[in-house]
Amino acid sequence: MRILHVASELFPLVKTGGLADVMGSLPPALANRGLDVRVLLPGLPGVLAGVVGLKPVMQIGPVFGAAVVTLCVARLPDSGLPVYVIDAPFLYRREGNPYVGPDGHDWSDNHRRFGLLGWVAAHLASGELDSEWAPDIVHAHDWHAGLASAYIVQNPGLKTPTVFTIHNLAFRGIFPMECHHDLGLPMRKLTPHGIEFHGKISFLKAGLVYSSKITTVSPNYAREICTPEFGCGLDGVLRDRGGDLSGILNGVDYSVWNPADAKIAVPYTVDNPEGKKACKAALQTEFGLSTDARGPLFAVVSRLTSQKGMDLLLAALPELLRDGAQLIVLGTGEGDLEAGFRYAASVNPGNVAVYIGYDEEMSHRFMAGADVLLVPSRFEPCGLTQLYALRYGTLPLVRRVGGLADTVIDINDESLAADRATGFVFDDAARHALGARIRDACEFFRNQDAWGRVQRRGMRQNFSWDDSAAHYEELYRSL
Ligand code: ADP
């Protein structure tokens, strides 16, 4: 079975969030099950620089406003999987964030840049671009690849089934209606039953309407997005497609996220966890935090946005600091939240430290050095950092929402007695609820025996890709 995965980012080539982690590990996990898997990526600078043995397959341009468009094939660096790369220098050879220009605004031609991605996927499916390989199924990820299914159904002779995975429904890929002139989509698709969304075009909606099957990245989020509260205005469409919608939990690549990793101060394992203390001291020292604090070290590794509940955390900070705990933050995002965390660090030297930026290796040091990882999201499709934290013996403190609810078992008398608890869970997206659970964590930290038991249980949890890949394979076979 030949599967083409279509996406805009893939770890380690280009990463802005969890989508890249999934793209870096799901296709190889499927290939390990014997599927013939290839990936299609836009030729962003990180992709061109990171793939191995790039060679042209077909000269395509000019299309989508680019004079030169070449479809190339190469291999991914670690897994060696074949990857198609769309080399369109005018559209993709731009440094920095793949979606946003240096002025902080989305690139004004994003509809062309990602329209082309879906269009090439459809033409690969038709067999026109590579005479040696065409997919049996096209699996597109997030709005960037949303038009793939729309272009496939546009060709009545093309019967390739499609799967569309929602990694975050909030990013709907919305563009002015006039953009359709650049996309070559027929007028009949521009209706409320098609890709029209409140007078505009939504690439994500194209994925929802035209794909054979829709998945999202946790079972709980699959239920939530069918409600007005979490549906981002698309819950009606999702309810209509309810029979074709399912949730498949993301996995973790434990070869990347592993406390035995030499990149942290002192590697450790569940049977020999001593190194974690040294990792904590090293992290505190690196960031100028005092090493004799009474309370736990809370950490954040996240986009600093209101989706991630970072405003709630800033508001709950007095509760956190009250019991002698510390906070360390790694993230970038909304300007006022970045400023808020910077200010918090400046007025709490020794107890709050902040690194505004994106740093992959540092994120591992945070996972290893922290006692608690905070993920107080307003919504969270799956969430990966809480899964990484579990493996590093760092207790997650999360809101009961989306994939967080599916993956963290709250510490309470019952779950402790049953040996099931893995972290702290709270319900309301409110400062008081978060603050109260933070205080509970500080209290629980005083009982180091009980803490150690929960830590070890967390480290033994298995969220590897094996199960999830089996579910995707089952879905492909159903098509
Ligand atoms: P989302 O995709 O919504 O941002 P996820 O939890 O699914 O959230 O995935 C986030 C990924 O990005 C994780 O791998 C996390 O470690 C990483 N990450 C987020 N912010 C940073 C940062 N500032 N530096 C390094 N890694 C980060």
Structural account:
With 479 residues, the chain is an alpha/beta fold. It has helices at residues 18-32, 45-50, 89-92, 110-125, 147-154, 180-183, 203-210, 219-224, 235-240, 275-286, 310-322, 335-347, 360-369, 385-391, 402-407, 413-417, 431-445, 448-460, 465-478; strands at 2-6, 36-42, 52-59, 70-75, 82-87, 137-141, 162-166, 174-176, 196-197, 200-202, 213-216, 245-247, 297-304, 326-333, 352-356, 372-375, 395-399, 424-426. The strands form three sheets. A nine-stranded mixed beta sheet has the order 3-4-5-2-1-6-7-11-12, sandwiched between helices. β9 (196-197) and β10 (200-202) form a beta hairpin. α5 (147-154) crosses α7. It is globular, with a radius of gyration of 23 Å. The chain starts with a strand and ends with a helix. Adenosine-5'-diphosphate (ADP) binds next to α1, β13, β14 and α13.
What is the structure about, briefly put?
With 479 residues, the chain is α/β, with parallel strands linked by helices. Helices cover 38% and strands 19% of the residues.
